[in-house]
Write a structure and sequence with these properties.
Length: 417
């Protein structure tokens, strides 16, 4: 750390940074231990095992810890919650997750270190982020800066495939948010085109829609006539193309991911189905499964209304219905979120790690922080930096663990003074 950066930190903050650096080897040992435990969402035993490892760390830090089971019918492992209460500064909620996309039958990619890079299952998404949380808190504890603070941590066991109903699987997280002033989430830090770290002040929703279309079955020679109409497939094509032409705007996407059409259509699962039809027969039915993403609740309501209007303008001899299913709510880029990013950016710059710019919301998928964003100022993307998340070659920039822990520790210190 250069002299200019050193002048930007108090002596107490310099001590916190030094503690983080001194603990870096142990931080990587902790990360290696958890990466080598398979914790795919549906591998409940593995998720709980990783939870036990992190729970022991929170216990050492003086947090009150508990494992919250989900109802058996939800088929999810549950969540780890750690809390401490005080009366000083902001009340902070920190969010991570224990599960990965790599299930128990996936080829097990163990931790492998090569210089400044390391690979393994969940190494950056997001066991690296979990370790950053632990190391930031460990440094504050060693510096005596955790005393009298209110900090809650939740590590969910099903972020990669959230259990339904989400009113239950995210209930405990929302309850913690309602008792907090700010929320910090530790999904991987995204680098901009210049290789600089960013922060996430907005994330788009992840919702879905179903389109069901009906037509008159008949001989193909009669299509487009008043008696036969246009058939279900043409009506489906009209609707989808009208979406494309009329709905496009910044931060709004609407993707038809699966389409089935013909005279016999069967939808047999979330991503499966069959269709039968003949080229000389007008199709009588079609279904489409789609995804809808938007940045604010208002944008979402407007998009749904426009989609319903388009669907209602049926071609002759056809009818259609569209229904919507809520998933992850949007995290709107509020003034409060931006202020939180400014504090984080200054802490990073003061530590000699450079300022942090906001990431465009359209560049992130959905995440747990979106369930708490309606209730509290929120900031995401504070985790590790790596490549290939959700892929067999998922890796990590090892240096980002120490850097993330320094930024987080300073942010926590300033929020809780």
């Amino acid at each position: 750390m250069g002299s200019a950066a050193a002048q930007s930190l108090t002596s107490e903050e310099e001590r916190i940074v030094a503690i983080v650096k001194g603990n870096s080897p142990k931080a990587l040992e902790l990360l290696e231990k958890t990466v080598n435990i398979n914790s795919g969402t549906m591998n409940h035993k593995g998720v709980r095992e990783v939870g036990k490892v992190f729970r022991a760390e929170f216990d050492k830090l003086g947090f009150k810890t508990q494992w919250i089971d989900m109802p058996k019918e939800m088929q999810r492992a549950g969540h780890l919650v750690a809390t401490r209460e005080g009366k000083q500064g902001k009340r902070v909620l920190m969010i991570g997750h224990l599960d990965t996309v790599f299930e128990a039958d996936s080829p097990m990619a163990k931790w492998e270190r090569q210089g400044d890079r390391a690979s393994g299952q969940g190494v950056n998404d997001m066991k690296g982020g979990d370790v950053i949380i632990i190391e930031a808190l460990r440094a504050l504890k060693a510096a005596g800066a955790l005393d009298n603070t209110t900090i809650s941590v939740i590590f969910t066991g099903d972020e990669e495939n959230a259990g339904d109903p989400k009113e239950i699987s995210r209930r405990d997280m929302v309850d913690l948010a309602k008792r907090s002033d700010v929320a910090l989430a530790f999904e991987a830090t995204v680098l901009d085109e210049n290789g600089k770290a960013t922060g996430t002040i907005g994330r788009r929703s992840s919702t879905s829609w179903d389109l069901a279309v009906k037509g008159k079955q008949g001989h193909s020679s009669g299509i487009f006539t008043a008696s036969a109409g246009y058939g279900a497939v043409y009506e489906t094509a009209r609707i989808l193309d009208a979406f494309r032409q009329q709905l496009q705007e910044p931060n709004l996407t609407f993707n038809p991911g699966m389409i089935l059409g013909g005279t016999e259509v069967t939808h047999s699962g979330p991503s499966k189905g069959t269709a039968f039809g003949k080229s000389n027969v007008i199709a009588n039915s079609a279904i489409v499964k789609g995804d809808l993403r938007f940045l604010t609740p208002e944008q979402g309501e407007q998009a749904r209304a426009r989609m319903r209007t388009i669907v209602a303008q049926s071609l002759p001899g056809t009818s259609a219905e569209i229904t919507f299913q809520d998933g992850y709510p949007p995290m709107a880029p509020t003034a409060g979120n931006l202020k939180l990013l400014e504090i984080y950016s200054k802490a990073s710059a003061d530590a000699g790690l450079g300022p942090i710019a906001a990431l465009p919301p359209g560049l992130r998928g959905a995440g747990d922080v979106q369930f708490v964003a309606p209730y509290v100022d929120s900031l995401d993307g504070l985790g590790a930096t790596g490549k290939g998340a959700h892929a067999p070659g998922e890796d990590l920039d090892v240096r980002s663990i120490e850097q993330g822990a320094i930024r987080t520790a300073l942010l926590l210190y300033r929020l809780t003074r």
